[in-house]
Specification:
The chain has 266 residues and is mainly α. The protein is built from twelve helices and no strands. It has one domain. Helix 4 runs antiparallel to helix 6 and helix 10 packs across helix 11. The two termini are 24 Å apart. 36% of the residues are buried.
Length: 266
């Protein structure tokens, strides 16, 4: 794990250059170009607000803003995972012609979506002001929460990217798993509304969800910062950080064992 992270730092210039190239190429041929960074999450928000805020009539106050505080970090996570899973298997041009550091490719996808997320934050703050929510000092907790989510996302992306080189069906499986996880994560709905399950009370089912779904804890932290404007609950976040460390160790071992096969299998 240390070796992978060290090499990633050594190739930081290449990582940044590839990320900037990806950002520029993403909307190069479109008329609106860079503005799609803001339009994509906004249009998604409008669709979900129409369905859950108007048709199904969610009881959450300022539902559009509530939804956006969860939708932006989820887009960062899901886009990184979906793009990162095939990041190695789709770059035969780089892996077979030169001795290219393969670990840069999944990290490039994560960094690109991280930058995209950061560029979208002004839109989130502007929407908050529209609903009368003024940013508070709790914004300082954005950095540690973002670090936890980024590390967790990177660990998962490394694992899936390495496995997908030999098992190409994985990228399609991940797509379906991400879609299912979206509805099992409190993005569209409030964690407090989680129902009792079997012999579990509502509080117990909420705790269970946060333990089995790390993104539920991360989502709750984002809501605490932007929507509730309070200090996030650090115990679930520390659990996610611990899970991320174990997951990164596993991912690094899998990545190291399969690294020499990448050029042959792609």
């Amino acid at each position: 794990m240390i070796r992978n992270l060290t090499e990633l730092y050594q190739y930081r210039a290449l990582l940044l250059a590839l990320s900037m190239r990806e950002l520029k190429a993403r909307y190069r041929a479109s008329v609106l170009g860079f503005f799609w960074t803001f339009l994509n999450p906004t249009l998604n928000m409008l669709v979900y607000v129409l369905v859950f805020g108007m048709v199904m009539r969610s009881a959450v106050p300022n539902y559009a803003y509530y939804l956006f505080t969860g939708l932006l970090p989820w887009i960062f996570f899901s886009s990184s995972l979906l793009g990162g899973t095939s990041s190695i298997s789709d770059r035969k041009d780089l892996l077979t012609k030169v001795r290219f550091p393969a670990q840069v490719l999944p990290a490039t996808v994560v960094l690109t979506n991280l930058i995209n997320f950061l560029l979208s934050l002004p839109l989130l703050l502007g929407l908050g002001l529209f609903f009368g929510v003024t940013p508070t000092w709790h914004m300082v907790f954005l950095v540690p929460v973002l670090l936890v989510q980024t590390f967790f996302t990177l660990a998962l992306t490394y694992l899936f990217a390495a496995l997908n080189v030999a098992f190409r069906d994985l990228q399609h499986i991940v797509g379906n798993l991400v879609q299912m996880a979206f509805f099992l994560t409190p993005v569209l709905w409030d964690l407090k509304s989680a129902p009792a399950v079997g012999s579990l009370t509502r509080e117990q089912s909420q705790q269970l969800l946060m333990h089995v779904n790390p993104m539920a804890s991360v989502m709750a932290a984002w809501r605490d910062i932007f929507y509730e404007q309070r200090i996030p609950n650090w115990q679930p976040l520390l659990s996610v950080a611990a899970i991320s460390l174990v997951l990164m160790w596993i991912s690094s071992n899998v990545f190291e064992r399969r690294r020499e096969e990448f050029a042959e299998l792609v």
